[in-house]
Amino acid sequence: MKVRHDEIGIVVLKVCRRNRHHETSQPAHRKQRDGGDGVQHRRFKSHAAPPHRGHPVEDLHAGGVTAVNCTCSIWEGLRDTLVNVGRWNSWFRDNDDLLLPVKVVADIARAKNENRVGIILGWQNTSALEDRVELVDVFKTLGVGVMQLTYNTQNLVGSGCYESRDSGLSDFGRDVIDEMNRVGVVVDLSHVGARTSEDAIRHSKQPVAYSHCCPAALLDHPRNKTDEQLRFIVEHGGFVGVTTYPWFLPKGADSTVDDCVAAIDYVINQVGEERVGICL
Question: What is the chain's mean pLDDT, rounded?
């Protein structure tokens, strides 16, 4: 597997929601912390999370990661998703030396040039749309750039990968994809059922993605994708992000970095390195 250091790297990060306690120990001014390597690392400030020693985006910044896709909606409906987006907006304001909201492709290059972490807000479900296609445009305006059609189970758009019967992409789902294509939101199929995924790949006028998955050839798991599925999405211009989540790898909790690299290498050998990325 070749790594080209002149490329702008993007990974997918699924950030867990934190308890809604106010942080009281963080001073108002920007702090720096020494990571033990003599490098000053920027501190993440949040008034919507409990006190903690660090935050994932601090480590991403220290590691030189350019941009990540951060989840702001899974099971939430419209109101709670709006609250989550509002919380991210406050983090952007409070950490403008560390974070940069990514709304267009050029923002990724800007994040790299300005030594910040670009944040692409994303959904792992379309439940926040409820039954209103026009909300796709609303959330695109608010900075959401990636929407996964389903999260494991059935919804109004289609079937998830854990459903015993995959009914395929619904007519509402086709309308949602059309609107996502129109406004520029990436269609994510990672947790989506096989038939619904194939329908979505065929229907979308823009390339779609498995943003975080592993190959089923290494472990037979509902969340993993077969060689045929991996090749099919790439043949239609799509993208595959290989996840390092241990439960999707053959050794489970005993997985090592070598096992993660082996999964990435396997997918590259199936579809080529130009359409493969890394997911955390």
Answer: 86
- Read off the pLDDT of residues 156-182 as tens digits, 9 standing for 90 and up: 999 999 999 999 999 999 999 999 999
Report DSSP state, residue 158: -
* Whole-angstrom distance, CA of residue 126 vs CA of residue 174: 13
Q: What is the pLDDT of residue 46?
A: 59
Given its phi and psi angles, is residue 115 left (phi above 0), alpha (psi -120 to 50 degrees) or beta? left
**One-character DSSP codes across 16-84:** PPPP-PPP-SS-SSPPEEE-SSSPEEEPP--SSS---S--HHHHHHHTT--EEEEEEESS--HHHHHHH
pLDDT digits (tens, 9 = 90+) for 41-75: 566 665 555 334 467 778 889 999 999 999 999 99
Phi, psi (degrees; rounded to nearest 5) at 31: -100, 155
Torsion of CA 175, 17, 104, 89, to 10 degrees: 110
d(CA 273, CA 267) in angstroms, rounded, equals 8
- CB contact set of 128 (below 8 Å; sequence gap of 6+): 73, 76, 77, 78, 80, 81, 135, 139
> Where do we find the tokens 């089923």?
216
CA 243 from centroid of its chain's CA atoms: 10
